[in-house]
Amino acid sequence: MEYLNKRLIRVASCTEPADLVIRGGQLLDVYSGTLGPGDLAIADGRIAASGDVTGCVGPATETLDAEGSVLAPGLIDAHLHAEVPKITLTNLANAVVARGTTSIMTPLDQLGVVVGVEGMRWVLDEARRTPLEVFHSGPSRLPYTTPASTVGRTFGPAEHRICQQWPEAVGIWEYMADSVLDFDEAVYEVAEMTVANRLGLHGHAPVTTGRALTACAAAGMRDDHESYSAEEVREKLSKGIKGILRRGTHTDNLPEGVRAILELGLPARHFCLCTDDLDCQDIVDLGLVDYLVRYAIELGLDPVTALQMATLNAAELYRVDHLVGSLAPGRIANVLLIDDLPRLDIRAVVAKGRLVAREGELVSPTRSPAYPDSFRNTMRLERPITADDLALAVESGARQADVLCLHVDLEEGLLSRRRDAVLTVNNGRIEPDPSQDVLYITVTDRYTGKGLTGRGFISGFGLKEGAIATSLSPDDNNIICVGASLADMAVAINHLVALEGGQVAVRDGNVVADMPLPLCGFMADVSAEAMSAMEKRLNEAAYGLGTRLKRPFFFLIFLSITAIPEYAVTDRGVVAHASRTVINPIRGCR
Amino acid sequence: MEYLNKRLIRVASCTEPADLVIRGGQLLDVYSGTLGPGDLAIADGRIAASGDVTGCVGPATETLDAEGSVLAPGLIDAHLHAEVPKITLTNLANAVVARGTTSIMTPLDQLGVVVGVEGMRWVLDEARRTPLEVFHSGPSRLPYTTPASTVGRTFGPAEHRICQQWPEAVGIWEYMADSVLDFDEAVYEVAEMTVANRLGLHGHAPVTTGRALTACAAAGMRDDHESYSAEEVREKLSKGIKGILRRGTHTDNLPEGVRAILELGLPARHFCLCTDDLDCQDIVDLGLVDYLVRYAIELGLDPVTALQMATLNAAELYRVDHLVGSLAPGRIANVLLIDDLPRLDIRAVVAKGRLVAREGELVSPTRSPAYPDSFRNTMRLERPITADDLALAVESGARQADVLCLHVDLEEGLLSRRRDAVLTVNNGRIEPDPSQDVLYITVTDRYTGKGLTGRGFISGFGLKEGAIATSLSPDDNNIICVGASLADMAVAINHLVALEGGQVAVRDGNVVADMPLPLCGFMADVSAEAMSAMEKRLNEAAYGLGTRLKRPFFFLIFLSITAIPEYAVTDRGVVAHASRTVINPIRGCR
After folding, report:
1. pTM over the 0.90 mark
2. Which residues pair with A306 in a beta bridge?
3. Dihedral class, residue A439 (left if φ above 0, else alpha if ψ from -120 to 50, else beta)
């Protein structure tokens, strides 16, 4: 886009007619935080004028009647991994724009590890043909994992030299506390380049406090979306690290974030909202940022404040307030017509200057383009995995093994804790024990063909039998499998390879439910509604295997993230967050 | 500066000792707007840690006792033409840092028209050796005047391609409403480049409202420092144009700006403070941003809010909040020790990590460097100017002429209005008439040697006899002269050329007082105190010629600015702001 648009300026000056005027509504001025009567004139997809736009109307100007509605800027998701809903960006845009989210900030980091910087660029070009405005914050490094797990493509200074020149660039993402504290040379080089390119260092510092947090601030971390308590939010802000308050499918930090504002008295200007990671069930059943705004209002925030957080504050944080985040002239014309402000009842959505949705329904959904060959056939395994490949072994005479399990708990979001357990050994093979809720977890490299597999134990998952597996798995998108049966785990993994990616539930050697994700091994070209239905089917299959987790597959996908305390599993093995090293989950045998 | 500094991060992590700790004070957290006990640790000129810094102290760490003081971030002047005080940047830094202003935003536009982009770069390098942090916003174009007046060097897209790559770059400046409305091709090209380079379009839109203002917003104008009323401030903000509230030597818009916050209820987060243009008398007698903060508090603003405007808000507006504007780790260590917050009694100043001033006195003033030859001998005139060169003539038989005067009035700041007058004609020459306060104003090109002179009449100046002249004269820095006697005007102009630039008062053919400004014709290497004394002497000489203006020389210098309504004079002649054309000040004769 050319930013300086003479036609827009002529329309603003009332010397040329607008394409569209929106009349009769109450305008939300997010700068002053006030509501008052005001119309909007739109030309070339941007806002030309606000207030009295009578002078911008010509014979060909279309009119949208906003009588009885509040006009608000389109909402911004300030931190969203756009691939995690497992649908193409076009389908994601169709789903979220209709509900009022017109801009997202995203790193496209899942794409990065499979199809690299060219694949990211391809999807950003795809995004331009949708009503969604996609801003890109290149991943601080790929893989994010420490020690580095196996991925198809890495991402470092060379890739940043490319992507930081893109017009969609707004900084780097997941600038991790660990990278700062470990003096990661490549990440430091990328951060220095980012500042020189006048972009932001968007952070990732879960449960980081004290000296470690001070070090992150000293290294220029601009914001964080990982605070689990209001006090953590406050400490971060005191060090100049702004809060992106999160509520995703498995991480609900919004009540604490709102408490930081309402009880601890932090100024709302420093906060914005994000979903981070969601499944399509959430998008379809609740919404995206529209839901966060409603939820924040329920939690006690004034509706105007909540909307400022979801618009202007996010735009200013990412330094794109000249493009989005308000209804001021010059901005991209993303406008919500809202009936009943506190309930955020979105009657219509104008995006990039066109009426794209009414009553939550798209006027004309965009269709996904044909994806390049590089997005297909990305799962490589030279020979099928066997149960023996997955089993952890001890000396053949042993009867019992002492093991360290990752213990996960929905209440703690994505944090995992240590649990110690004693397992039975048969012919040197340590057996899973569903009766004490200790299962196997494996992560199998799907890039090199070698099928290098990291193996450990997990508790809290609750499967009584069978196995479930996924090849969508931030951060490296290898195949994560959790199972009560090593044989079923092998079936699950091999099935995903055959599907060219996906998710699967297996019992007694048979596939109970599956979902093909043939694009990069983690996306399908289906609507959010269709994906939501598939997710429900998969999760129900997992319930049938005994788990009581609400969204077992959504939990499963995050078990490889080494940047979240305290344990993770990658194809390298079990990783302890504190030491950032691979540890042996077998503590002894007897 | 390398932004990522490993030593800083080690100090933040308490694994290496700090250079300096400031202990025992109350820390002003401009993010939360709160005060609380807290120390600071400083390393390599930057803030390493805040709060409890015990772990950062080693045997070589110095300690500054802040018992009883508030620690606040150094103040930021959000819009200052740094050459207008007529002293070198080093002397300016000495003067203002001691009083608490540690950062300025400046275009160095006076330098631009004389020594071009290389001269600007030279002075930015000079600034690095001072305690003052100087951010650069390249002038939207030079000359700013429309129609273009004569200057030594122009500034356009080619120069922006250079200066926008500098680390000091924060955008373009004086992005003028006129340029937007006139579709100025070169300015549009510069603006497009600026946005592509992720810098800001910092505006100039005096008394601009309605459609014209909407056009400015549509063209991306980010802020403005030229609002004369609270309502103007409000309208601008409603269009996304933030307010830089100004109080300079001749323009005091701060009461209206504060009224916009206190009475109209606009959120203070969108406002910061600037002086724009001052003489050294003001700096010495009052201060720089320290005075603005005190004044804003007197006008009713809460001290913390006033300080936030002078720190964080300015840093965020210019997108340099990772460098300045707070005491968060990572920022440049610019720290004020303030006793008695509402009175802003600054006990000590730490700048770039070093204690530079105590009780308003510099610990060790920096000395100006030797300036390059290009800064000297910049006044060119092939032959002396004569009274005949300056006189406006009509047909020889005429007895009277109807003329249009610029009428200036201190109450209106830099705005001028039209006044019509009737003057006597002698031998075809229109005579000035001090008895009705109608004087000559001339502007003489000092670059080409040709001495092209624009001529007009001025009212409101009040000289009864003699003439005063200046070769500091934003925007083009030609020689402005106002006089009750054409002969004295010629003496004044010729004297300034002989001085290689300066200011002068002449009576009856004799120089009554003068001030040499041999660097670029508008700067001298003297302290602010010495310059203030010279200014007083010059102004007193002008009082002796009959003017009742408080700072006649400071008024004089601005009469060439064509971007301020309603009239200006350049070497091209009298310019009407409304039409941006040269007009004939002689309306008729009889």
Report:
1. yes
2. none
3. beta
